[in-house]
Amino acid sequence: MVLAANSSANDINSELNKLDGTVQDNEGNIYRTVQIGDQVWMAENLRSTKFQDGTAVRSGAIPKDDETNLLKYGRLYNWHDVADKRRLCPEGWRVATDEDWKTLERTIGMSEEELDQEGWRGGDQDLGLQLKEAQTDGPFKKVDQSLVNKHNFFARPAGVKWNGWYITEGAYTEFWTASSASESKGIIRTLAYSWWNAHKGEIRRATSSKEYMFTVRCVKI
């Protein structure tokens, strides 16, 4: 059973594991990393269950509570863990802020006019496709596969957890930023994957309740 699980994990991450850069958290989890412009990002979603000081996080659910999803999707965290001063990411790294995301978006071609806008952005250049590991075609718009995962960001549609329910796996991925919008809401990024979704080439900048549980990407400090 262990051999089968390891084989499955290797199959899931076979392309991802071709990246040379790595970083390890204090639990021994190893993540592939990628340089995009002047930034170095994790090319995988965070899987940590502890902060840098060794204390346990309060969230950190595996999508659908299915261990086979851990290496594929990472864990889902609420914003309180994301922003905790004990630091969720490995030493020398931080949860990407709204500004970090805007730097990434600028690097891959988003216009200055769109950077600070809320809602779906970057559609003219299909910037959303450039961050996804995969995107299927659909009858409404043919996907230029040469753009998909152009920057080796390997975003996957992990879905979210809300009020104990796992939803939208395979259809959306939602990334927390470490930036707060208000007492109850944080700033997020969203990618859409369903072939019929008109926004599948875009990146959404929005706000969401801090109680939602989303995926997390870390960026090197």
Automatic annotation (TrEMBL):
Entries under InterPro entries matching the protein: Fib_succ_major (IPR011871)
Residues of the Fibrobacter succinogenes major paralogous domain: 34-220
Pfam families given in the database record: Fib_succ_major
This protein's name: SclB protein
